[in-house]
TrEMBL record:
The lineage of its organism: Bacteria, Bacillati, Actinomycetota, Actinomycetes, Kitasatosporales. It comes from the Bacteria. InterPro entries: Rossmann-like_a/b/a_fold, Universal_stress_UspA, UspA. This is Universal stress protein UspA. Gene3D superfamilies: HUPs. SUPFAM superfamilies: Adenine nucleotide alpha hydrolases-like. PANTHER family: STRESS RESPONSE PROTEIN NHAX, UNIVERSAL STRESS PROTEIN UP12. It holds the Pfam family Usp. Belongs to the universal stress protein A family. Residues 2-139, 161-295 form the UspA domain.
Amino acid sequence: MTGDVIVGLDGSPESRAAARWAAEEARLSGSALRLVHVVEWPGVPEVPLYVLEADEERAGELLRRTAARLATARPDVGISMSVLRGRPPAELSRILNETDGVRLGVLGSRGLGRLTGFLTGSVSAAVAARAAPPVVLVRGPGPGARPEDADAGPQTEAGAVVVGVDVRSETGEVLGFAFREAALHDWALHAVHVWRTPVGYGQAEALDLGLPAELEARLAKELDEAVAPWTRAFPRVPVTADCVTGPTAPRLLAASDGAALVVVGRRHRGPLAGARLGPVAQAVVHHATSPVALVAHD
């Protein structure tokens, strides 16, 4: 596999954990690792140039320290560094979208709607919503952890990839990414489709108690058909597939408890559509305890 793994850094424990996750991804995939920090630059004359220069020097030192730490742990990974000027959402999105052959982007996340450092709140969500390549959000160490524990990264190696599948939408990009990650890390894969009885079926369901089971069987067949080409392409990946009923985000979060990685899709959006995630993707980003991959699809 080729292409850069690009990780956005701000010096927080979450971004340090993201850097470690990204370095392992780069090692396993044979990719180069690129460390990026964006210096917030308002571009107004009231801010003197020496302030920008000092910020850039601090950013460079942050990247050098991170690169040295990662090189010690992963000496076989090629590492480069970039300090950018501008607005973090725009610059991080731009580098992900305009760099040839990007494998994925990686950012640090606190979850529960609070994202850290220059990735605060809407910034990280905006990057994930704008980026063409997949973006992985990585949790930092838990409460009470020491700062250096961030370098150990989240302990997810024993879990599986949990991928949310909408059988009525194009799922190729989402399932393809999930299977590639499972194969790369030697993880199992759990495909989950969440459904509810359509509103118009209410009276029919009351008259025919077998209708929900019939609907579930039909959806389970569609899920198996969606997964089948990927199980053939990745025969070494252990796969389970389940259809569950209820509200989508809570059911997907319940299924992802203890996962190594949660994969959810998001719609490609044009430049005029705005940069935001859908409600299910937002809920998973905010509440999942595992790393979350957001994969754009048509």
